[in-house]
Amino acid sequence: MPQPEAAVSPPMPAPDELTQFFWDALKERKLMIQRCQECGHYIHWPRPLCRFCLSSELAPGEVSGRATLYSWTIATQPFHPYFVDKVPYTLATVELVEEKNLKLVSHLIECPEDEIKVDMPLEVVFQEITPELTLPFFKPATAR
Ligand SMILES: [Zn+2]
User: Fold this and answer.
1) What distance in angstroms lies between residue 62's CA and the mean position of ligand 1's atoms?
2) How far is the CA of 108 from the centre of ligand 1 (A)?
3) The whole model's pTM is what?
4) Is residue 1 pLDDT above 70, yes or no?
5) Domain limits of the chain?
6) Omega of the bond prior to 11 within 30 degrees of 0, cis?
């Protein structure tokens, strides 16, 4: 009898003191983005200084999880063994509604390719990949 293959672990983030809050919040199904306490701009990825006003007064701020689609591509090649049985999938750059140009790279799910449109409204979906890793994916926003 052939042995079943061991499940392949996903590539894992390597948080540091600047980015730990982002990953911790995802486990609680919250999307937190670094925000400048001086000028109010959101900053992603987290940095030691605000790129707008150079303040170091930066703290995590929770965002709504609402976004629009900025750009997308269909990934057909698995670049890591974990993705072998997951291609094709849609890689998306989304713009969070909180601020112009506040972009996040994610996966677009629950959307057939022929329904994908730039600027379409999206909402976050938290997917627990492993007990240690929850990721923010996006799907078409439901009408409310
Ligand atoms: Zn600032």
Assistant:
1) 17
2) 30
3) 0.91
4) no
5) 15-62, 64-144
6) no
